[in-house]
Amino acid sequence: MTKPAETVVRAGDKVSSEAHGLTELLEIQKAAFLRDGIPDAKTRVSRINRLGQMLLDHADEITEALNEDFGTRPKELSIAADVAGCMIDLTHQRRDAEKWMKEENVSKLQGLLGYKQRLRHEPLGVVGIMGPWNFPLQLTIVPAGSAFAAGNRVLMRPSSVTAKTTDVIARVAPDYFSIEEFAVVTSKHGGGADFAKLDVDHMFFTGSPEVGKSVAQEAAKNLTPVTLELGGKNPAIVDPVQDITEAANFLADARMVNGGQVCLCPDYVFVPESKVGEFTEKVVARWTKNFPTILKNGEYTSTINEKNYTRIVGLIDDAVELGATKHQVIPAGEDLPNAQARKIPPTLLTGVKAGMKVEEDEVFGPVLTVYPYRNLAEAIDKINSAGHPLTLYWVGKDNENLQRVADNTRSGSISGNDFALHLLSSGLPFGGVGKSGMGSYHGKFGFETFSHARAVTVSTMPISFAQIMSAPFTKSDKRLTKMQMTMWRFLQGRASRKSAKG
Predict the structure, then answer these.
(1) Boundaries of each Aldehyde dehydrogenase domain copy (predicted)?
(2) 215 near 54, Cβ under 8 Å?
């Protein structure tokens, strides 16, 4: 039975999460979950509402902090991604949580025969959420909303790399939540490795595959289930009949979202061999138009820190040294790449071959690699030789070529002709497969990720399976077993014959 709605946090409840240690926060939330039981719909909606209100009330502080964390990050991007972008799924969770949490009768007919079956959707308890630096709020707040819809408590750890943004959320969260419901974990509680060791009821991580492996290993020690939203080198394929200008403009724009620092950005693109030169020219022209200045341009997102800046520049230099050609957009009079501003010019690489580091590493920056192809089989084979990407971009019509690509590759999603369209729909799952992750969220998929589907069966049937399946086995039991085998052999034979006929 669900409990009545909780009272919204009062002035006397405003305790900062930093007043408690990491394990103490977990103990507080676990004790509160056991004390209060499964929350009702009103409580869940209240928590989701407060999560959204917290973002909207402090949107200006959040965008300012994000700009400081990155060095340069346009306010419009921060609002669209880390504030308004969260509201789509929070609204869906708030609207449908009551419907999703209802107990289901599985088979009314079997119930009339005395075999009652019900399915309960129960919260797991305390959910730990670890977020990355590229979208530090969208990729923590959205899963937190799903966890609340499912009835859980949340320990949320945004990235330490975007420390100023984390500090804003940690400071204002007590105005909206008791730490029994929602607590923000900061670097003062320890590192991400410490958080991964927590014995939570579900661990949700978004970040690189390398760190994801460590999180999964630590979670396994507690038999904690994990959802891993990882990265990957996302390919794009330009259909042979696609207008090359449209393809170049779209992929040039998609590569530069957040300075290329998005797990969904296209990383490399297959272009029909005869059109590579034209595609290259069109991409460079698009970037030249979009970025007449870079160094002093507040709309050109900086690389997040020196470590990543050095890594990306190193990938470009390594490729060029081994024979690749770089095509860069550097406005007149600007010293780029620029370590002080951490700005790397938009870069397109051609002639990339095996052995170059950019072939293996996810760039996560303003660099796009172009490969020529003569037929779709070449592109498909190249994609399948790498780990399954988070998304695969198709540039062209919804036609037989797209169907062939979909049937012969694996990826978390397929995005046609636009950037990350599935993020706009709470009716679609967001998640990877293989090296790009496990599990999914958004909409009902998020609710299910943070819920336990608990089966309840009650029998009033005249026969007892316990009696039938335990000694002594009577003549009636043996006849029943023989009848079962005769029935299943008949049904299996019929199915096999039907399958053989095609």
Answers:
(1) 41-456
(2) no
Question: Which of 96, 70, 92 is closest to 82 using CA atoms?
Answer: 70
Residue 465, burial from CB neighbour count under 10 angstroms (0-12, 13-18, 19+) = exposed
Contact 394, 239 (CB under 8 A): yes
48-77: pLDDT as tens digits = 999 999 999 999 999 999 999 999 999 999
CB atoms within 10 A of CB 322: 16
Amino acid at 121: H
Question: One-letter amino acid identity for 421?
Answer: L
User: Cα–Cα distance between 118 and 107 in angstroms, integer?
Assistant: 8
| Omega before residue 337 within 30° of 0, cis | yes
Q: Are 207 and 185 in contact (CB under 8 A)?
A: no
Sole residue written with tokens 């939570």 = 200
Q: pLDDT, tens digit, for every residue of 100-133?
A: 999 999 888 777 777 889 999 999 999 999 999 9
* Both tokens assigned to 370: 């172009």
Q: Where are the beta strands (DSSP E) in 226-307?
A: 226-229, 234-238, 266-272
**Gap between the Cα atoms of 287 and 114, Å rounded:** 69
Residues forming the active site = 229
